[in-house]
Each structure stands twice: as C-alpha cells, then as structure tokens.
Design brief:
The structure is a single chain. With 275 residues, the chain is α+β, with helices and mostly antiparallel strands. The chain has 3 domains: 47 residues, 2-Layer Sandwich (Uridine Diphospho-n-acetylenolpyruvylglucosamine Reductase, domain 2), CATH 3.30.43.10; 116 residues, Uridine Diphospho-n-acetylenolpyruvylglucosamine Reductase, domain 3; 92 residues, CO dehydrogenase flavoprotein, C-terminal domain (Enolase-like, domain 1, 2-Layer Sandwich). Helix content is 33%, strand content 23%. The chain has a 5-stranded antiparallel β-sheet with strand order 4-5-10-6-7. Strands 11-12-13-14 form a 4-stranded antiparallel β-sheet, sandwiched between helices.
Length: 275
Amino acid sequence: MIPVAFDYVRAESADEALAALAEHGDDAKLMAGGHSLLPMMKLRLAYPAVIVDIGRLSDLSYINDAGDYLAIGALTRHRDVEISPVVAEHAPLLAHATSHVGDPQVRHRGTIGGSLAHADAAADHPSVFLAMGASVIARGPDGEREISGADLFSGFLESSLAPTEMITEVRVPKATGQGWSFQKFNRRAQDWAIVGASVQQTNGPAQVALVNMHPTPTRAAAVEAALGGGATAIEAAEQAAEGLEPSSDLNAGVDYRRHLARVLTRRGLTEAGIA
C-alpha cells in the first residue's frame, strides 16, 4: 500500500531533530533505518504528517566502554553491534542476539535505538534489553533523563517517550564472564520470533525476558521468582508463561506459544549454566 502523504525533514543534528519534534508534536515521527516505521505507514497503522530523518547523525553512532556499562549510541547500526569486540567481550548476549535480527540488509540499516523506541514485543532487542537490565538516555526540551527497561515499554508498540523526546544512548551493564543464552524459534531465519527467550546470569538470580509472549516486551517474572526461591532451572521454566497474555495468529496459537515459552526458557537457563 501507499502511505498517507507527509512532509520530510532531514535533521543535521540531534538539536535540529528535537526542534522539529517540538514544533510538530504528535504529528511528527523520527526515522533512522526505517524498517519499523515505513511498513507501518504502508499498512496505514501509522500516518505521521512529518517524517524527521535522523539516519545521518553520525555523532549518535558509537560503542564506548564506560566503566561499569557499555554506552551505545542510539543510531548505532545492528551490524556494528554484532561485530564489535567490546560488545562480544562484555555483553555477549547482545552481540549474539543482534546477529539474529532480520537479514544482513536489515542489520546494515536498522539501529538499536530505533528497535527499542518501536517497543515491539516480537522484536529481539527489547528482550535482551530487559534481561540485561539496560537503560536508555532520552533527550528532550527539558534535558536528558535515564529510563530503565521496566519503565520504557508502556503498551502495545508504545513507549514512555514523550512526543518531543528521542533516545540518544543505550546503556548496557557489563556481564563479562557471566552465563547467558538467546533462544529464538521461527519459521525462517529472517522472520520474527514465534517465541524467544533471553537469559542473563547476574551476581544474583538470573534475569529472563521473553519475545512475543505479551502485548509489551516483558520479563518472565514468575521464572525469576521461582529461581530466587531455590527452584531448579527445569522447575522454574515451567512458570514461563504465568501471568502473560500471548496472542494467537497464523503462526501459532496461545497454547503453542505457552509451550514454546517453557521449552525455550528451559533451554536458555540450561545453556546459561543455571542449575
């Protein structure tokens, strides 16, 4: 389909992009790689009056070691995250999961900040973001604020970002030498996950987040609680679907998704070395 007509603004800086958002408010949408926004526009699920293109802002593309965490610019391409030695050493879950995002064309154009801002529960990065306890830096007219994973995703394809804010940086706590796993079940390599699971071992109980098991990206709270209470990985994995509301579509029904969540969580916990 053809999108609704819109005006196009090419931002030359983050400040210029923020000024455009302040001017147009809810009528404007940011576009970086465009892999999420453009298909929605073609389906008439989104119809912004103004597109603010931020894809050329090179100052928001970087991967830095910031001590206890990795600072990743919001416009860093998936491919750069996938092949980064720093990410591979300190956040291997993120590097591995990124290698499973779409296909090479998507990974060379899509951005980590765009994936998180889109807030799609079927995408890979939000689950990794939650499992690793990451946060984002959002910049707006009132300055910058840090938003945790628990606070970023507010509804179906909705985030807590204000219409006049943009993500400028993703902060991922280091997990050097910790157990991890990314499990993804799909029909073809480039497809969205029917169900997925991200597992990250920490100094305390493991953190588990699921893909495509709820209207919003979500942690598997029942699994984490069971592990914290002394349950084995097999016992805890049986709680993977508790409290969640998976959807039914052409690829899978609700019961099948619940089954996959238990299976993939068990595999993930085992691979991460969690007994």
